[in-house]
Specification:
Number of helices: 24
Helix content: 25-40%
Structural class: alpha/beta
GO molecular function, one term: oxidoreductase activity, acting on the aldehyde or oxo group of donors, disulfide as acceptor
Cofactor: thiamine diphosphate
Pfam families: E1_dh, Transket_pyr, Transketolase_C
Keywords: Oxidoreductase, Thiamine pyrophosphate
Strand order of the largest sheet: 11-10-12-13-15-14-20
Protein name: 2-oxoisovalerate dehydrogenase subunit beta
Distance between the termini: 87 Å
Number of strands: 22
Length: 673
């Protein structure tokens, strides 16, 4: 190490060593516990990387945000996550910082600013943007640091996040802890790049290389960088050179470092190296350093003992923290009764669905300054591809945020800002595009409340357009993806069939404490107009509505298929079949009570949806009706969805493959034979 040790205040250097000693003791305790069989959990050692978070610790506080990766226990220790709660969490105990429900790869401790730990490489970067965006919009000087390894630089989510951070000049530091190995693969075997900082510079912001094994040089470099980011100068990418001494996972030394290479690496190991420098420079005595080491060992031992005494998290926690309200969780026999919305008697205005959506957004932004919108092309002009944002950027300024074409960055930013109390509304232009950002929606937004043991939640809303039924949009702009998302615990999903419901459901989603998704059918965006309530109008989630009373069969449906079913019911009436049409409106929470009550009354049920029939929501509902009402039905409940094929570009094929008035009538007639 060649940096001038006198360039850092002695007290700061001592504090850096104290943090490094604490990290080392935690590492030793975990590896010892795993080796002896005392512990049993997955561990990704960070041995050799201790100087990076320890050198940053004196420069930040608990109000600054941190995001890290599964190999981030050193980051968590230095950020201030309590060791007792840290060990208990890794051991799956009730006393864990997340009640033992996140475990070693998913630690969240908002009290210390450790906001999220992801087990998916690179996925934290878009979420860190959201944390930084929230602070920028609130006018604070807080910084966000997102830690990841060199291997994450190959991930698209990191590139999308860096691009967005550069465009918006976000107060975020992309901390690449370059430990020379991407899991099991050395750098030259997975990239031709000579460095990683050039990637930041290509996106228009600063990249800096620092020696992450020299706490003096690294601290001095980070001091200037953090000050710059605090001052509003935008993001910085830091490539912190270090070396991982341990394996990818487990205990022991790295299998990739052989002979002299491992010997040299141990000699340059920051923990003993800094200890030696402090002694040589006369900054600390052996007694002082021994005391620091002893205190770190004692703190760790006490934490381990406390964690081991903590009760193992039991199965009574299984369905808690999936949602804020446990009754939302669907399970066999679940039949929660939810009150319908009161009859609206206030002022109305005739609107199409796109105008009703804008009314919901505008009203919500008036009610709460933490509501903001983000998505592609939503600024003036054009005001959104579907015109839902026309004129809103001029009115609301930075609270209407047009984004790059980058769905992972959009959902990540929404998730991160929601973690600290904002209420983002993100638009994903077509429901088909959900595949591009599925990780951010299902692995992060949907699971965060559960993984964190409810220490954090994600009150964000995502709007998606379904292009099916119009004709001519083809296979990648037409599918209805609700079944895919319904299989992901933690999400709430609505699917309005009228402009009034589009507004009422959207406002309820925006002010809900869980992540919500609103599907909007393009078949209804412009075509259907009606009188829509003005002002604050909400339809409670989980409440279905009978759109047509009937006595002979229940047509359970949602979205634009409600219109098809209502028309089909009129045709069936000519045959003497009186069909009841039940509009689900909310797909999760599902209104089992109204579904079963209607089916019990009519004795027959057909679930109709535009999505593919195979493994669709119709199968779930029909099965539930059959199980619950087996002895009371006149015929088995069944379902009717789209044919098992991508939506065709040909209008003729699309009309035939998706339920329509004629095919619904034909299917019902079959049920009466």
């Amino acid at each position: 190490m060649s940096s001038d040790i006198q360039s850092v205040d002695p007290g700061t250097l001592t504090e850096i060593y104290r943090q490094m000693s604490r990290i080392r003791e935690v590492d030793k305790a975990i590896q010892g516990g795993l080796s002896s069989g005392k512990f049993m959990f997955t561990y990704w050692p960070m041995t050799g990387q201790e100087a990076i978070p320890a050198s940053i610790a004196p420069l930040i506080n608990e109000k600054d945000h941190m995001v890290t990766i599964y190999r981030g226990i050193h980051d968590q220790v230095a950020k201030g996550v309590p060791l007792k709660g840290l060990f208990a969490e890794a051991l799956g105990r009730e006393g864990g910082v997340n009640k033992g429900k996140g475990g070693s790869p998913h630690i969240s401790d908002p009290a210390s600013g450790s906001m999220l730990t992801t087990a998916i490489v690179g996925a934290g970067a878009p979420i860190a943007n959201g944390l930084a965006l929230a602070e920028k919009m609130r006018g604070t000087d807080r910084v966000t640091i997102v830690n990841f390894g060199d291997g994450a630089t190959s991930i698209g989510a990191v590139h999308e996040a860096m691009n967005l951070a550069g465009v918006w000049k976000l107060p975020v530091i992309f901390m690449c802890q370059n430990n020379q190995i991407g899991e099991y693969t050395a750098i030259p075997d997975y990239t031709a790049s000579e460095n990683f900082t050039d990637r930041a510079e290509a996106l228009g912001f600063r990249g800096v290389q620092l020696n992450g094994n020299d706490p003096v040089a690294f601290h001095n470099g980070m001091k200037e960088i953090i000050a710059s980011v605090r001052a509003g100068n935008g993001p910085v990418f830091v490539e912190a050179h270090t070396l991982r001494l341990g394996p990818h996972a487990g205990v022991g030394w790295s299998h990739l470092l052989k002979g002299d290479e491992l010997t040299d690496a141990k000699e340059n190991w920051p923990v003993p190296a800094l200890r030696k420098r402090l002694l040589e420079a006369g900054i600390c005595s052996e007694d002082q350093l021994a005391k620091i080491d002893s205190e770190a060992a004692q703190e760790t031992a006490e934490a381990v003992a406390w964690a081991m005494d903590s009760k193992v998290t039991g199965e009574d926690e299984m369905l808690l923290d999936v949602y804020g309200d446990p009754s939302v969780v669907p399970y066999r026999g679940q039949r929660a009764k939810r009150a319908a919305e009161p009859e609206y008697t206030g002022e109305t205005k005739e609107m199409a669905m796109f105008e009703a959506v804008q009314s919901a957004l505008d009203t919500s932004m008036q009610l709460d300054d933490q509501v903001y919108c983000l998505g592609e092309d939503i600024g003036d002009d054009p005001g959104g591809v579907f015109k839902c944002f026309k004129g809103m950027q001029s009115k609301w300024g930075e609270r209407i945020r047009p984004t790059p074409i980058a769905e992972q960055a959009i959902i990540g930013a929404a998730t991160g800002s929601a973690l600290v109390g904002m209420r983002p509304v993100a638009e994903i232009m077509f429901a088909d595009f959900v595949g591009v950002c599925l990780d951010q929606i299902t692995n992060h937004a949907a699971k965060q409340r559960y993984m964190s043991g409810a220490t954090t939640n994600v009150p964000m809303t995502v709007r998606m357009i379904c292009g099916g039924g119009i004709g001519g949009f083809g296979a990648q702009h037409s599918q209805s993806t609700e079944a895919l998302l319904l299989h992901q615990p933690g999400l709430k999903i609505v699917y309005p069939s009228t402009p009034t419901e589009a507004k009422g459901l959207l406002m309820s989603c925006i002010f809900d404490e869980d992540p919500c998704i609103q599907f909007e059918s393009m078949m209804l965006t412009y075509a259907l107009r009606e009188e829509v309530p003005l002002g604050d109008y909400r339809i409670p989630l989980g409440v279905a509505k009978v759109k047509r009373e009937g006595t002979d069969i229940t047509l359970v449906t949602y979205g634009w298929q409600v219109m098809q079913c209502l028309q089909a019911a009129e045709e069936l009436a000519k045959d003497g079949i009186n069909a009841e049409v039940l509009d689900l409106r909310t797909l999760l929470p599902l209104d089992y009570d109204r579904i079963l009550s209607s089916a019990e009354k009519t004795g027959r049920a057909l679930v109709v949806h535009a999505a593919v029939e195979f493994c669709g929501l119709g199968s779930e509902i029909a099965t539930t009706i059959n199980e619950e009402l087996f002895t009371k039905l006149k015929a088995p409940a069944t379902r009717f969805g789209a044919a098992y094929a991508p939506i065709a570009y040909s209008k003729t094929i699309e009309t035939a493959q998706v339920p329509n008035v004629a095919s619904i009538v034909a299917r019902v007639r079959e049920m009466f034979k």
